[in-house]
Amino acid sequence: MKYEVTQTNTYEYELPVRQSINQFRLRPLHDVQQTLHDYRVRIQPNSKTYGHTDYWGNYVETFYLWGEHQDLEIETVSTVEIHPLSLDVTLPLTDQQRTELHSESFKQAYTEYMIETDYTTISKHVMEEETRELWANAQDELDFAVKLNEHIYNTMEYVSGATNVETTAEKMLTHRTGVCQDYTHLMLALCRHRGIPARYVSGYIYIGENSAYRGDAATHAWLEVKVPGLAWIGLDPTNNAIAREQHIRIAVGRDYRDISPLKGVYIGGAQTLNVSVGVKNLEERVSG
Predict the structure, then answer these.
(1) DSSP 162-178
(2) Which residue of 112, 172, 206, 251 has the fewest C-beta atoms within 10 A of its own C-beta?
(3) Would the pTM of this model clear 0.90, i.e. be above it?
(4) Alpha carbon of 43 to those of 10, 11, 169: distances in Å?
């Protein structure tokens, strides 16, 4: 599936800003699961960006504005083609896969995706209680992750504005309300508790006209789990979905802090940020 994604981020400042330094991660990943055909950035006031690849493999752009300005707009337009994994998640893992999954070499290779972070720290007793029944009824770790994906979808309530970018998985589990970032942090914590490497994914989701999926009005979040012998497998607890052709990946990391799409430092007054996202299916046929 091929898409064109337009994201516009507009900052408005209470007082004129004398100077600012800004950084963003908005260029979609280019790898075996998706091909980035085109990517363009427009910044107003006009500025040149400087790019680098971070530790996690994400493309990061930085720019500086030294002149006075009272608003800032960053628009990105991407053309991306998705190559979904042909994977049946209902198939059991082999004995060899499970042995490797529990091996020290595998744990060391994926340690960074198995440790607790500020966003994903929950009492071990609480995590044990939350996952005990699912774990007991799962045929293996992958089956557990798929069941957990559905469990979180069914037992949490999606409420816009109930949380903020600082909300942790522990708070999400306590109040059982949140948005895609919170669903993802919670599932990351519970997967890691059961020894499954899991990483945060930011990106976009294509919904179309008749879908009940959540998350098309802004950037979306889900996670990927890793088991031996298979590529990273995307799971979207906000929608109880396996990430396939409708999910467009921008960046990956341990949690939101590693992939924060926009951040900066400026000299001036308070600010407001408005974000709009449009995802167009370039292969959709128009009947007439």
Answers:
(1) SS-TT--HHHHHHH-EE
(2) 112
(3) yes
(4) 10, 11, 34
